[in-house]
Amino acid sequence: MTGLRRLGATAANAAGLLLAVVVLNFLLIQAAPGDPAQVIAGEMGGASPEIMAEIRTRYGLDRSLPEQLATYVGKVARGDLGYSFFFNEPVSRLILGRLPATALLVLSSLGLAVMAGAGLGILGARRPNGLVSHAVSLVAIAGNAAPVFWTGLMLLVVFASLWPVLPVAGMEDVATPRHGLAYGLDVARHLVLPALTLGIVYVAQYSRLMRASMIDALNADYVRTARAKGLPERIVVGKHALRNALIPLVTMVGLQFGQLFAGAILVETVFAWPGLGRLTFDSILRRDYPTLLGILFCSALLVIAANLVTDLLYRLIDPRIRAGRPA
Amino acid sequence: MSALVAAEAAVQPQPVRSEAAPSMPRPAANPGLAALRLFLRNPSGLLGSVILIGLLFAALAGPHLYGVDPFEIVGAPFQPPGGDPVLGTDYLGQDILAALLQGGRATLLVGFSAALITVVIGVTFGALAGFFGGRVDAALMKVTEFFQVLPTLLFAMVLVTLFGQRIAITTIAIGIVSWPPTARLTRAEFLRLRGLDFVKAARAAGAGPLYLIGRVILPNAAPPIVVSATLAIGTAVLFEGALSFLGLGDPNVMSWGLMIGQNRAYALEAWWTVLLPGAAIFLAVLGVSLVGDAVNDAVNPRLRKRS
């Protein structure tokens, strides 16, 4: 298959998945106990009878199911994710407003997790039966078992009362001006604990994965060849083995992007980080279904985008995939 | 009928993972027993088993032995551990030890039941896809891919929010969002096994698709599925905790997650009300992961060499 045709197929697949998510949202509204108009208005949205009547006409709730579905899909295609009667704002604008804070948190944690995880994994793989290797495995298992909201709460307790050197809530101090270097530093200080909390789980998972795939790579014939021809160890490990060992890690990162986002919901709730996770928590609390379903749709969109990026990254790391040959 | 008997005969002499047998120095007479021996020799597997058995015992027998109702108000709120009651009280003045013992039942029950749902859905999808291949495979894998696009925890939150905060719904929601990895794993095993000689022999003897899937291939595909089921228990326990933490737990059923969710607003004044149930979740997931890893090492001889 040529590159362009492959790209087209991938894009068509992504569009199909996205449409399926919209249909799922529609079915969830229909299947939820109670009147769909009530679901759209949100239980505690304080919708008046006039608003309810308006929702019925806007979403065509008096027509047949297929017609309703078509109306719903058409709305989403135009970027209309509904209206939050609790926040008194269109859902799409609410989500776009909260997205930057979440993106900052998720990408910082991901960066931390990939770098620390890969580093620890390589360290552990150098001597598979050494002390360092066992320590890395132990940290990996423990870090993976700790619930992320619990780690966050414990860090919060420590840094709020025992060792108050870092802010434990929000994203900025009220007193700091909202521009320039001072503002950047202020946000960075607020970011440390949330990013650390979210990152720890993935440091654990990635170090474990990296250790295993690095051990495999270091046992491979091409590494023996590289050593036999006298290449320095730094090049053997850092270039020959690392490039191959990174492929499973990239796969994992791509596959887990959605989970990382879900983890952000918990972490943002703990640290009052003003992002999408906090919005999710509020919309659950208020039974604000349009917002909640809008977030589900947007996160699926992000995951699909992340999968596309992963696909592109593969090609950069592994020329064999680029050429269309099996890896 | 005779065809089935013949198929059974064709299946019987096949040891689990027959293709690995020639490379091993002495093929064990009973691969299950050999795996059990390997499992018991693994210190982390033993540690995990001890943790899990301890937690199960505490959850099953604990409430009877301790005999305090976890919802009963036994004293002033926020009493620190070390006095009476021994682990202190929570924000309402409920006994924390009683809540931990009783809460373990719900949390572990959700963990096991949700893992069971995960395995049933995942194995059904994976087995059908891997066995039939072609269009069936393409269609089922499309559904799997769709479920993998939805962030698991968020999807579970939406389901519980829409359909009600009851422990049964929590369990079903966790099962519904968690099955895709098991489906992919099962499919891969079925794809690998379906072309092997013992399956061909059973097919030639006249075995039907259901018999081939359930009695011929599935037993041989079981080891990695068992490992993934074990790990699914840990994930489900974490999910129950996360949902309850967000206020989506069943308020009428005491669980470890509910304890954290209800006390978290007071974490700064009374850290023990959050530390203890979180530590219980941590131990449960740790125990499950250690056991899962040890089972994996025991049934997968290829991994033994490198770790």
Automatic annotation (TrEMBL), chain A:
Q: Give every ABC transmembrane type-1 domain span.
A: 99-314
Kindly give the SUPFAM superfamilies that the UniProt entry links to this protein.
Answer: MetI-like (SSF161098)
Transmembrane region(s)? 7-29, 101-123, 135-163, 183-204, 249-273, 293-314
Put simply, this protein is called ABC transporter permease
Q: Which family does it belong to?
A: Belongs to the binding-protein-dependent transport system permease family.
UniProt KW keywords: Cell membrane, Membrane, Transmembrane, Transmembrane helix, Transport
Report if keyword Transmembrane helix is assigned: yes
- InterPro entries xref list: BPD_transp_1_N, MetI-like, MetI-like_sf
Note the superkingdom of the native organism: Bacteria
Q: Does the keyword Transmembrane helix apply?
A: yes
Q: Which Gene3D superfamilies match?
A: MetI-like
Localization, per the record, is: Cell membrane
Membrane topology label: Multi-pass membrane protein
UniProtKB/TrEMBL annotation, chain B:
Record's Gene3D superfamilies?
MetI-like
Q: Which UniProt keywords apply?
A: Cell membrane, Membrane, Peptide transport, Protein transport, Transmembrane, Transmembrane helix, Transport
Kindly give the membrane topology term recorded for this protein: Multi-pass membrane protein
Where do the ABC transmembrane type-1 domain residues begin and end? 104-292
List the SUPFAM superfamilies: MetI-like
The record's section on Pfam families has: BPD_transp_1, OppC_N
Q: Where is it localised?
A: Cell membrane
Main localization, broad class? membrane
User: Which residues are listed as membrane-spanning?
Assistant: 44-62, 108-133, 153-177, 198-218, 224-249, 270-292
What family, per the record? Belongs to the binding-protein-dependent transport system permease family.
Q: What is the protein name given in its UniProt record?
A: ABC transporter permease
